[in-house]
Amino acid sequence: MEPIKEPPQTFIFDVVVTNLEAQGVEIADPKRLVIDVNFNRMPLTLTSSRINVNEFKPGSGLQFETEPNALRHTLEECGMTFVVKYDDRAVGNGEIAFPTMVTERIEPGMSDIIHVDTCVLGNGAEPAGMLEIRCRLIIRCSDQPKVGGSECERDMDNSINPQDIMFVVGASRHCPSPCDPCLDAMDLDSDSH
Hints:
Layout: E1 9-22, E2 33-39, E3 42-46, E4 62-66, H1 68-78, E5 80-86, E6 89-96, H2 100-103, E7 113-123, E8 126-139, H3 151-156
Antiparallel strand pairs: 1-4, 1-8, 2-3, 2-5, 5-6, 7-8
């Protein structure tokens, strides 16, 4: 019997460069700075709005569909590559290999993955600088039915979101009589008696 094949998931990948140090190049105009990224064999271009920043730009993520196992395999094999360009001239390039603790988390129904890493840039055999990145990979919620099992089993994981569970600890106060209102809950006006 063949294993049940999971349907492709819709992923959203986003990356920002939190720090860029380029050696031998004076960056007078950051708007002419571009970083070409290759993630999961797909190109992504980072412009000045995503370089030397700490926050992700809303709506700028790369959306794609693939099976989690295929994505995990591609990232383990290829990592993520960078080519830093200034005025359309290559300043340096580098590659980040994702650690196993990141890639093994890629699976159906995974929680968001945020990864921070550093990449040494080179230009041929010469050092060309360094960049620090922050990236995130999320699964876009969808209404794709799960394969196999009964309808109850497929919907079981969707009934309660673990983030919606909250515990409140404290002593409870009860009114002495369930029929009479609690005196401390009502403001009695002494003039009205």
